Amino acid sequence: MLTARSRSELAANLVEAERSRAPLSPLTTAHPLIDVVDAYAIQLINIRRRVRNGARVVGHKVGLSSKAMQQMMGVDEPDYGHLLDDMLVSTEEPVPAGRYLYPRVEVEVAFLLGADLPGAQCTEADVLAATTAFAPAIELIDSRIENWAIRLCDTIADNASSAGYVLGTQRVAPADIDITAIDAVLTRNGEVVAEGRSDAVLGNPVTAVAWLARKVAGFGVRLRAGDVVLPGSCTKAIDAHAGDEFVARFAGLGSVRLAFD
Fold first, then answer.
1. Helix (H) or strand (E) segment spanning residue 40
2. What pLDDT does 75 receive?
């Protein structure tokens, strides 16, 4: 467990790394006593700072939602980060690649909530009842830690390595599609670079959203009507470089584009 001063210093270091695009050594190397409670506290320090500066929380993302990633990190549950309104990027305008350190893209089925979710008792049925629609999405992830040399507490402190997201235009009601069987294909500059299916996310993305609602309740947070939730990637993460154009296509759910200049 870290002191409050150490948490504040590490939060400030992450802010500076993002601003200067000069990555940090892993927090877990310099501070071997850091734990998950510390890491979420650091994340919240920086989210609150951004909100004070005018940003607005519009949802959450789930990370480490595949068994393979959990095994790699040595954990038995996902993690989460915040989505802010200033993280939403356009399908039409290229994103400046130089804004990021090590950008990657992930393919996700976004949940658009039309009602508040219960907290600690949230079930999968609650999630489906509260979800207005699914939407095609790409999450832009990045790490302020040098060369993605992260362990669990590194990524949690760093807002679960989230940097941006984009939503496609199509909306499909939960009753009109099987959320566990959506095939997804990601192309980069016209070439297929990743393929997957929505059940790669804990066997069912709904499970990830219900987990999230229960988890954040422990921090006094609720998932609210109007929130966007990214439950985890259907595919492996793919490196992005200046000039790349990504298109993610989802069976029955449409497509979404993200380009880098």
1. helix 36-52
2. 67
**Interstrand relation of 79-84 and 57-63 (parallel, antiparallel or unpaired):** antiparallel
Q: Is the pLDDT of residue 72 over 70?
A: no
Q: Is the pTM of this model over 0.90?
A: yes
- Name the token pair of 177: 């599609």
Is residue 138 classed as helix, strand or coil in its secondary structure? strand
Lowest mean pLDDT among 14-18, 174-178, 235-239: 235-239
Tell me the residue ranges of DSSP E strands in the chain: 57-63, 79-84, 104-113, 131-141, 162-167, 183-188, 191-197, 228-230, 238-239, 245-250, 254-259
Residue matched to tokens 């009109």: 176
Neighbours of 160 (CB within 10 A): 23
Q: Which residues contact 63 (CB under 8 A, 6 or more apart)?
A: 69, 78, 79, 80, 81, 155, 160, 161, 162, 232
Q: Say what the pLDDT of residue 73 is.
A: 66
d(CA 178, CA 162): 27
Give the whole-number percent of the chain exceeding pLDDT 90. 90
